[in-house]
Fold this sequence. Notes:
63% of the residues lie in helices and 0% in strands. It has helices at residues 17-32, 44-55, 62-76, 82-96, 98-102, 106-130, 142-149, 151-163. The protein contains eight helices and no strands. The two termini are 25 Å apart. By secondary structure, the chain is mainly α.
Amino acid sequence: MNQPSFSSRRILRPVRPWFVWLSLLVALVLNLMPLGRAFWLPDWVALVLCFWCVREPLRVGMGSAFVMGVVMDVGYGSLMGQHALAYVLLAYAATTFSRRILWFGPLRQSLHVLPMLIGAQCVMLLVRLAGDAEFPGLEYFAGALIATLLWHPISFVLLLPQYRPENKDDNRPI
Length: 174
């Protein structure tokens, strides 16, 4: 029988909106850091956006994904709409499958997230190829694989503020 995941063993407090937007801003800064275009770097915005679309589909959705995508397009100097289209499709898939994904533990959640992240990479690749770019090779998808491996640690870190009790009470069991 499947054991419930770490996050489903406890009752979580509601997420604060400022924390969601701060985490997306940190992911954006991590993506735009001048580290070069190493193939092994995950797309932090896609990963954090996917996480919040799964966890908070009413708060973060396709509108947020579009805005983050346009900012990434401007930041990278890529074809306008490349990241926006990929992130909107990623957000749509994440919100569509959010209830299903949350039923599983961390390993199976990451297996559900993998095709969504690879799909977003494929959309960006197809837009680039339509704009007469060269095929970058299969190592282009390594970032999506690494982001999938980071799904559980990122989930743990992003859920930490929700685990704190509002006030300590020794008589309260939760």
